[in-house]
Amino acid sequence: MAIQLKITLCDVHEPSVWRRLLIPETYTFRQLHLAIQIAFGWEDKHLYEFCSAGVGDKWNVTEDDENITGIITPATSWARETKVLKFVNEHQISRFFYVYDFGDDWRHEVEIEELTNSLSGMPVCMDGEGAVPPEDCGGPGGYQWLKELKKKHKKTPEERQHLEYAFAKYDLFLDSDFDRYGNLKEGAIPDIYGWRAFRINAFNIKAVNREFKKMRSYESRYSFTMGDEDAIDLNATIERINRMEKLYNHVNDTVIRLTTSCEGEEEAVALARHERLKKSLSRMKDEIQALSDYLGSPDWWSDRAADEDGFLPDGLKRGVLGEDMLYNLLSFIDSVKRG
Q1: Range of the structural domain that residue 160 is part of
Q2: In terms of domains, do 101 and 215 share one?
Q3: 71 has pLDDT over 50
Q4: Which residue, 28, 86, 297, 338, has most beta carbons within 10 Å?
């Protein structure tokens, strides 16, 4: 079974912005939050809440921004544990609101249209209209002002600056503006500014459903509930982190040892040391590949979630769970291989 929902962004018109989704009947409010974020194209960087539509019982739940604080609150637990279908049946409601970003106050009306026979374990986007507004633009009123400003024939430098800032996410750059690791080069100027590239009617249903297919690994960040250690194999998690930590330390120590130069070192000595480094990395190719496969994998997200939920012992070394550490090491190794 699946729940068919129509979710409409309130107070945004010409065009209206809405999505029709199928979500599994087992979905919690936390999972619904993630599905809405993906379906609309929000960036999941602000607080959110679910609340009643003003008919019948008054209720609301506001989740702490655990992405920033790492704190698990009763509200966080409620969102992770409470199933949407069970809750709406118990309270006999057919619609409610989802509010994202309490500053901009993006309110979404969630209508429960019907229950359907579906075996999909992931959400499916069936239909929709309109592009999601840029984040931090001032809510519906600010977005309407930006749309009118885009249409204005002659713009002041200040108005152009407002547009460039608000739509920076949509800036288009040439391939030559990026380095070999995909990072934007310092001082790069967009080939097409985002406010020109942004289309208010843009909605790509195929792209949304491609993202939904990736959602299982994304969800693993939030797959545990407060105090529910039975939800994970804690011993396997600790053993995996220990194994990856040892691999990381072995590779990283080798890199440090063979890249540390002595004062006044001759060029021939430096070149010989560089060749030893390349040979050492070649011998460790399986360890390096294991680290590369681990970074960003469902296991990695799951291990990070176990850490954030407080399930890991205090004495466990877990530097490998830091994204920057692994990424920087693997990026350096890649540059050595290319050099």
Answers
A1: 139-197
A2: yes
A3: no
A4: 28
